[in-house]
Amino acid sequence: MRIMTWNIHGASLRDRDTRFPLIKEAIEEAQPDILCIQEAFFPKSRKMLKSIAGYHVSYQLNWLRPPSTRGGLVTLTKAKPLDVSFQSYQSQGSWFTEQRWDRLLGKGFLETIIEDTKLGKITIINTHKVCTYTQDTDQYLEAQTEQLLKDIRKRKEKGELIILAGDLNFQRRSKLYPQFQELFQDTTEGLHQTMENFHKLHLFEYETIDYIFVGDKYYCEPTYVHHEDWQKYPSDHPGVMVDVRFQR
Hints:
Layout: E1 2-7, H1 16-30, E2 34-38, H2 43-50, E3 56-58, E4 74-77, E5 83-88, H3 100-105, E6 108-116, E7 120-128, H4 139-157, E8 161-167, H5 177-181, E9 185-186, H6 192-200, E10 210-214, E11 219-225, E12 239-245
Parallel strand pairs: 1-2, 7-8
Antiparallel strand pairs: 1-12, 2-4, 3-4, 5-6, 6-7, 8-10, 9-10, 11-12
């Protein structure tokens, strides 16, 4: 099964007409079975994702006008979803920092349940947690992590197969990372050196923290989505893709 996660930097409006066709092209070429997108806030983002043939597109809308995507989260699956729900984080960040944009748009996690012919039901959790704008965590990020992990533990107790993907906004050296390692296999663990090389080439601005976690231990081949012909990276985050060989 091929899984991809990508923060498409949908908040950047001035250059999206250039970037979005490149993102769409990369997704069409990769053909992931599951795709978790973050920062697809606005109608143009959703229109681009809906134009990709062969996928069911899951999201929920905010009360804003024009309607924005709740949490900026969209999940694409080749299998038809059985259920889609959005859980808002109870803690949304400070009004007095750049986190006010997180509060306005509303961070949370999108849960999409699909039926796989070999694996049975799979719960896909797509999330983009509050940004701290520092190397460290803060009370809001930690509270969101606690809420997310509580939901995940309940699902694992029921024996559900869970895939968690998205922009979690903490480093692997963070005190939060081991809490996820206890429950999941980090399929992106082998990409450290590639990330360092991307930074040296100045292909994107931030030291991005995007993960794909799966339950149990499986054989995984991870890679970043990149093409040598791209003059500018189509997001400040590289797409992350992993081929997972599940065994049940």
